Amino acid sequence: xxxxxxxxxxxxxxxxxxxxxxxxxxxxxxxxxxxxxxxxxxxxxxxxxxxxxxxxxxxxxxxxxxxxxxxxxxxxxxxxxxxxxxxxxxxxxxxxxxxxxxxxxxxxxxxxxxxxxxxxxxxxxxxxxxxxxxxxxxxxxxxxxxxxxxxxxxxxxxxxxxxxxxxxxxxxxxxxxxxxxxxxxxxxxxxxxxxxxxxxxxxxxxxxxxxxxxxxxxxxxxxxxxxxxxxxxxxxxxxxxxxxxxxxxxxxxxxxxxxxxxxxxxxxxxxxxxxxxxxxxxxxxxxxxxxxxxxxxxxxxxxxxxxxxxxxxxxxxxxxxxxxxxxxxxxxxxxxxxxxxxxxxxxxxxxxxxxxxxxxxxxxxxxxx
Length: 369
Description:
The chain is of the alpha/beta class. The protein contains 15 helices and seven strands. The chain has two domains: 7-105 and 314-350, no CATH class; 107-310, 3-Layer(aba) Sandwich (Rossmann fold), CATH 3.40.50. Helices cover 53% and strands 14% of the residues. The chain is globular and about 55 Å long.
């Protein structure tokens, strides 16, 4: 969105960042303290505060769901170990809230999730991604929401996921859809599928976890292999690093290395979800890519700051870019909470000193008596 993230996205990011230690009412106060001269932003902050204050149960569910899936990687973890841990995390998340487990900004509301899913599906159809003669592979299908949304507009959809629980939920939700096939996957490759077996590959919010597991390049190679000539791949969110320039540079580098062209370059085309959209096509396709001038410059700049961009500091853990409303509020909230904690610590120290002083004088008086 041109004017920043929607209320639901900001609430979701706050839940992701502040999993413990800060209650919803405190964050509501922070939202109200963030004054804005712009009426639209002020209204959004008031809506955020209202939801945090009066629907703390929703925020608690989001926190619990977010906490089930850890978005950091330990130095000792292998790629396979990260995938196994993520699979277990998504199993747990799906049992807490099916809707929130696949899109935290749905706030666990099935109607909100359905509306966002329909918006994304409409965008895919508008990009020529679908067709009743097309076979689609959905990487990280979750609870099967895109299988349901796109089944009428495809010949066949195969959804794969590393979470057995999510596949189980997806099969229940998609029961009766004869052109939908849902399968568990190792998460390490697409070895179950032969070369040139799909017209399109979809990956909604799954590449960030492939990036985390160190498997992004392998999956680009695999996607290129399973796509038919002129096939397309839609990657909606590439990473959660908080650096759009670095994401674009990586996508261009990997696409070029594996014979694909970038048609849509990290745009934000959705109103109900704040994901970045990349659309790729095989290099021998009939479509021509958009003007990609400036990509080399962005790549050079991103390479210079690669280490900084990959640090999981407070600006990047929140899943937002610098300057966004969500990012601003998250950082503001962290600062305010830290300020409050420091003040509380100082007050405790002063009170402690006063108590010690009173005890000293009382003891002194007793000794004099």
